[in-house]
Design a protein that fits this description.
By secondary structure, the chain is of the alpha+beta class. Helices cover 26% and strands 18% of the residues. It has helices at 7-12, 29-32, 40-52, and strands spanning 66-73, 78-85. β1 (66-73) and β2 (78-85) form a beta hairpin.
Length: 87
């Protein structure tokens, strides 16, 4: 999402905030949900669905069109990436 080495600066500048250049974890991420082992992937998909359908309430990212989830478990033995687009 940012050039190599520029991620920290982007966060400091607010570019990853809900209304920044690219919103990252507007819900606070999985740690904010208590990291529900076994349900993390479903929680991510529900968050993206709510963002893309305008049902995320105060967490809403204005005009969200694309959402991405990335989840891995068992110390990397399983990995899933989903990319969703509103229609």
């Amino acid at each position: 999402f940012f050039e190599k080495g520029q991620g920290v600066q982007a966060v400091r500048e607010g570019r990853t905030a809900k209304n920044g250049d690219i919103a990252i974890n507007p819900s606070g991420g999985l740690k904010a949900k208590g990291h529900p082992i076994g349900a993390t992937g479903v929680g991510q998909v529900v968050e993206v669905f709510e963002q893309l359908t305008g049902k995320a309430g105060e967490r809403s990212v204005a005009d969200a069109k694309i959402g991405l989830t990335h989840n891995f478990g068992a110390t990397g033995a399983s990995c899933a990436v989903h990319i969703f687009q509103s229609v």
